[in-house]
Amino acid sequence: YYDSAITDEEIKALAEGGTGIWFTFADADTTVDPTKTSLPTYNRLKDAGADVHKTEWEDVHDLTGRFTDAEGNPYVYAGHWSWIYFDNNECTEGSLNEWEWLASKVAE
After folding, report:
1. How are beta strands 60-61 and 52-57 bridged, if at all?
2. Could you read off the pLDDT of 58-70 as tens digits, one per residue?
3. Is the Cβ–Cβ distance between 36 and 44 less than 8 Å?
4. Does residue 92 contact residue 82 with C-beta atoms inside 8 Å?
5. What angle do CA 42, 45, 49 make, to 5 degrees?
6. What residue ranges in 9-103 does DSSP mark as E strands?
7. Which of 1, 7, 38, 53 is geometrically suited to a Cys-Cys bond with 22, CB 3.0 to 4.6 A?
8. Distance (Å, rounded) from C-alpha 23 to C-alpha 39?
9. What count of Cα atoms within 13 Å lies in the side-chain half-sphere of residue 102?
10. Phi (first) and psi of residue 16, to 5 degrees
């Protein structure tokens, strides 16, 4: 979702809603430009005091060792596939883990 389409009132409502948001994206995403979507929205939410986190990746490649290219290097996926990192429990912000953070939201 383009940040330019999100009003200041919507940012305020999200920040005050208390649910929290975790952005996971790759700089190499050619489907959705994070400089026009995730990054500015994350910054606005953070400035508004929201419970907001992010895991920013340079690109999306296999970290499991299961998938490689012809030369044996980790397979590189399309940059839009950053959800792979979430599914594989690889998204962190400092010592905070995205899955654990998400589970804590359910318990609230």
Report:
1. unpaired
2. 999 999 999 999 9
3. no
4. no
5. 135
6. 21-26, 52-57, 60-61, 76-77, 92-93, 96-97
7. 53
8. 9
9. 11
10. -85, -15
Backbone CA torsion sign across 23, 75, 99, 92: negative
Euclidean distance between CA atoms 52 and 85, whole angstroms = 18
CA distance 96 to 38: 19
Here the tokens at position 7 are 């009003």
Task: Extract the tokens encoding 70.
Answer: 């012809």
CA angle 33, 39, 40 (to 5 degrees): 105
Residue 40 pLDDT exceeds 90? yes
Q: Residue 29: is it exposed, middle or buried by C-beta count within 10 angstroms (0-12/13-18/19+)?
A: buried
